[in-house]
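lol so apparently i was supposed to do this last week
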Amino acid sequence: ARAQVGVAHGRVPVPLMLHMSAAPGSAQILAGNSTSVLRYTAQQLAGPSGAVHPIPGSHLGPLLRIARGQRVVVDVHNAIGEDHVVHWHGLDVPADQDGHPKDAFPHGGSRLYDFTVRNRAGTYWYHTHVDMRTAIQAYKGLAGVMVVSDAEERALPLPRGRFDVPLVLQDARFNSSNQLVYTPNMMDGFLGNTVLVNGRSDFVLQASTRIYRLRLVNASVARIYKLAFSDGTPIVAIGNDGGLLAAPVQLPYVTLSPGERVELWADFSGKPVGSQIELRTLPFSGAGGSQGGALDVMRVDIVQSEPETLTLPATLANIVPYQLQNAVNANNPRVFPISMQMMVGFTLNGAPFQMTGVAANEIVQRDTLELVRITNTSGMMQVAHPIHFHGRQFQIHARSVTPGGQAGWQQLVPGCVDAGWKDTVLVMPGETVDLLLRYSKHTGLFLYHCHNLAHEDDGMMRNFRIDP
Ligand code: C2O
Ligand code: CU
Ligand code: CU
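anyway here it is w/ copper (II) ion bound
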């Protein structure tokens, strides 16, 4: 049934109304043959102007710019030839608007989404979420970025306009006729051999001698990135999954696992015109499988001299840390173990995905702060898993690792931006991560899962049910 939309009366603001479609297409990604892809397109029908920004030269979904508090009504048409459903990653929306695989709709069908953006300013994203087909559909292009703004963020002197750049990272593999190849395996999921940025290979940012806000989104099937600039430009994080940090953080490199976002304050103001800077993923081991190969991600070419007046703010946002003693189960964490089961693959909470199945320890109470523990300490075949909770931004309370996991942990976790609000957390082999998480006020069935999309498709996903 379609919701009643359109007429705004009284003081109710006008909803942002979009028509979106998911359909096959082709993209000129490499020289020569074009590549078959899937793509979202969107048109704005009503609401505050300038919400939809197609990314030039990209087959990925358009950038959606949305103000906090905005009601969004999106009619999504499915023309991809198989089931489809859209998930609004990071947003706190009602269960029936969240894009659960049980709400997938067939080719030729449409679904009307209607929700209000309650989240703070930040870099969120939308992507397909069909049971067992999420990886291939996202890999082929069904993903896009949502940038949410709010008054607190608008008041800060941050890079804006062409100096505020969303960058979607996906690794890929092409065959000799330039078609995407998807060959998953149980341990890795799927790792490509080349990195696409905003759907383009050999991506170059033509930059001025200015400071940039780079909003990195890891939309890869499985690849974990360990990112650094080739010329030693400092890695300064100002935001992550749930928006701005309380204060900037400088890191030796930044670790970004699938599903995570990070916002960098990238200062190119002192660079000579003509210089070229690579953003690379550095080699590492210890995340298991074949993770950790070195690859070039993108290049920044300094092409123009311009004066810069911005300076890095010492404080960015007001983030009130949760207190452990305020969690209702402070002495008795809710534990969700990661394990590997013969013939099943990786599981969460001891069982594979069941469309609507919920175990007794997956029933929680709305608006309740809990200590949630994810363990990756069982079995011989440990790999790193980015664990994501739907509809929630949580705080990372503590990490600990077994002696055997130390060496690998040391190669990636120092680059994790654990401050601020998170919806996805990398859990390394041998690691235990404690989260302080307040469940949504929305009741119903929500997902938590590994954001290695191949693991997710293999069943490393579970429901939790929020009760009134
Ligand atoms: Cu971005 Cu359930 O995922
Ligand atoms: Cu999500
Ligand atoms: Cu996983």
